[in-house]
Amino acid sequence: MSLTLLSTPEDLEAYREYLKKAPGSSLWQSLEWKGYQEALGRETRLYGLVMRDQTSEMSFEATALVIIDKTALGLSTWDIPRGPLGKNSETREKLLKAIAEEAQKEKCMALYFSPQSDLSLLTSHPSSRHEQPETTLALDLSLSEEELQKQMKPKGRYNIGVAVKHGVTVEESKDVDAFFSLLKGTSERDAFGILPKSHYEHFLKDLPGSFLLLASSTEAAKKPIAGLLGITWGNRGYYYYGASSYADRALMAPYALQWEAVKLCRNRGARTYDLLGIAPTEPATCNLQPTTSSHPWAGVTRFKMQFGGSTENYPPEQEIILKPVAKKLLEWKRKVWR
Fold this sequence. Notes:
Blueprint lengths: L1 E4 L3 H11 L11 H9 L3 E10 L5 E13 L5 E5 L4 E2 L2 H16 L3 E6 L11 E2 L8 E6 L4 H6 L3 H12 L2 E5 L3 H15 L6 H10 L3 E8 L6 E10 L2 E9 L8 H15 L4 E3 L6 E2 L4 E2 L9 H8 L4 E4 L4 E4 L2 H14 L1
Helix pairs in contact: 5-8
């Protein structure tokens, strides 16, 4: 069993087949995500611990898609989102250690990974950033539309009805400019950062399965008043980015958008709709815990919870610091620059 950089067409096809059955496989370890990150200008590497039989047929004991984000002086950070994948914790840990050794050789300041289950590496500790949420909310799309609405909170069903009453309509679109305009307004209102417009353009253009929904209403002169960027991958749909007009908030367009996204993903064959990140909750009641009611995501969490579903929990993102001095200096520089 040896560390292998998977790069040939044959390697990638074997990996694609492996992902169909690999426990914990997700969008963020897919070849589609790899291509999208490359379109954004990032380097990617696909590593595997590989076994070969007497006929040289390859099988994977553990794999990891690594996203490399380069910065000044040739320094970089390496990220394994929702990975590594593997048969058991022993092989996943062995792969992580091998990748850390590779990263150490290449001016990597820190290796981040967000595992599906706990990995006990002595050299890792909880990350100072949080790219992948520890808790998410998922809807069961095997339910009928009537059953999906029935398991919503009363306010969720009611607000979808309010949107219908106000003539809110939702259509698929390619108009990233309209979405980005809404996103800038939402960012200023709710005080959170957004990415350059090109990021959302690449999401829609270079990520297979992605979609953009825009909501409008005759009461708002048919201009876009809310938007949603999502994606389907495998048997799962994801709500990724959302934006809305504060002036038209009474029309409840975001509720209509989510309901249409649920139906779209269901029609594409997805069996789960992932609302992608909420504040920590009480799993039994799906209510915000008192200690997290002031969490930065508390507001969006209350909105997402109106659609029902069940929580899924993951271990905290971890980091292995390889160049502590360089990492601290870069963090200080970015803090001062901001």
